[in-house]
Design brief:
The protein has 8 helices and no strands. With 195 residues, the chain is an all-alpha fold. α4 runs antiparallel to α5, α5 packs antiparallel against α6 and α7 packs antiparallel against α8. The termini are far apart. It binds adenosine-5'-diphosphate and magnesium ion.
Amino acid sequence: MNHPEEDTTQLDPDEAQGLKFKHITTRSELNHLEQANIQSGIAWMRRSRRTDLLSESYVRELHKRLFGEVWSWAGTFRRTGKKIGVDPPRIAVELCTLLDNMQYWFDNETYAPREAVIRFHHRLTAIHPFPNGNGRHARIMADALLIKLYRLPAVDWAGGQDIHSMGDRRKSYVQALRAADGGDYEPLLTFADIK
Ligand SMILES: Nc1ncnc2c1ncn2[C@@H]1O[C@H](COP(=O)(O)OP(=O)(O)O)[C@@H](O)[C@H]1O
Ligand SMILES: [Mg+2]
């Protein structure tokens, strides 16, 4: 079965094998299972007492909490190249650099909280550490930083729409990520500000 989302990150055959529910035949069934898993992952993030958010271990545990009931490879880094993302051998080191940078931005108030978290979110999607679920994980990771580190409210990423479907809101989100690729974070900041 093909993976349900757009072709930004197609699963390789061995990744597709990692589906824990072998009876699934439709995309909507998979979407529902993933959505239920994500809800319990968000609940874990909100109640967790972990304070080491800026560690590889936390980043991986969050992915596992969000997708681990559905995919056996949840919480483990990509081993194959995708259209987006750094080469697999560079994932751990690029993530480490990003986490160090974010710690520095937080400690030194280099950027306003929202801007720091938006820069972090963009870089995390660009590294693309996991076989799939990078967008959803990076949005929830950004929310975790806002809530736990900065004691601020989460971003309303969906703005009342299902960001995971191909609506206008997702289009402007992807456009904003592309602008950030070019060093312009304004569109992503504006996007994240919509209430
Ligand atoms: N040029 C791009 N086009 C689409 N998505 C991009 C692009 N660059 C980065 N991304 C990010 O990658 C995500 C898609 O990767 P994927 O691993 O499939 O995550 P998910 O399954 O949560 O959507 C998008 O949600 C977005 O956050
Ligand atoms: Mg996907």
